[in-house]
Amino acid sequence: PGWPSDLEAYMTHHAEVLMQAHKIKAMPDWNKAFRKDFTDAYKVAPDVFAVQGWDTMQLLEAGLKAVGGDVSKRDAMFAAMGTASFKSPRGPFDISAAHNPVQNFYLRELKGGKNVLIKTVATKFSDPGTGCKLSS
């Protein structure tokens, strides 16, 4: 049968509780500021792509600062990006040896239109990068 054409309306109508594993923690201060600034600028709430874009710009900033803006120093720039650590809207952000985010995962529940944090299900989760040449 497949998915209904209006999945959001279907989910809202047919599900009282939606459980999800989600990467963004329940509103730390830096998350509140990010959401407000993004919504004010673009008149829509930020989604996962907005958060990933923000994280990407933080990594680029760390790399560019380390080389004084000289992008010809690629190795030094990438090394600095690989050790970057900052507060992301998704929570504390670090990079693994495989160059993937090291992050917490949270179990969340949507109840009565409110997004409620149930618990942290994984802390500082890191993709082992199995088979990745960067991780060795």
Task: Give the helices and strands, then pairings.
Layout: H1 7-14, E1 17-22, H2 29-42, H3 48-66, H4 74-82, E2 86-88, E3 91-95, E4 101-111, E5 114-125
Antiparallel strand pairs: 1-4, 2-3, 3-4, 4-5
Could you explain how this protein is built, in words?
- With 136 residues, the chain is an alpha+beta fold.
- It is built from four helices and five strands, in the order αβαααββββ.
- It has helices spanning 7-14, 29-42, 48-66, 74-82; strands spanning 17-22, 86-88, 91-95, 101-111, 114-125.
- Strands 1, 2, 3, 4 and 5 form a five-stranded antiparallel sheet that branches.
- 9% of the residues are buried.
- Mean pLDDT is 77; it is low at 10-26.
In short:
This protein has 136 residues and is α+β, with helices and mostly antiparallel strands. 37% of the residues lie in helices and 27% in strands.
Task: Encode the helix/strand succession as letters.
Answer: HEHHHEEEE
**Which of globular, elongated, flat, extended, rod-shaped describes the shape?**
flat
**How many strand units?**
5
Overall pLDDT: 77
Q: Any idea what the radius of gyration is? A: 18 Å
Helix content: 25-40%
Poorly predicted parts: 10-26
Q: Largest sheet, described in full?
A: 5 strands, antiparallel
Number of helices: 4
End-to-end C-alpha gap: 45 Å
Strand content: 25-35%
**Class inferred from helices and paired strands:** alpha+beta
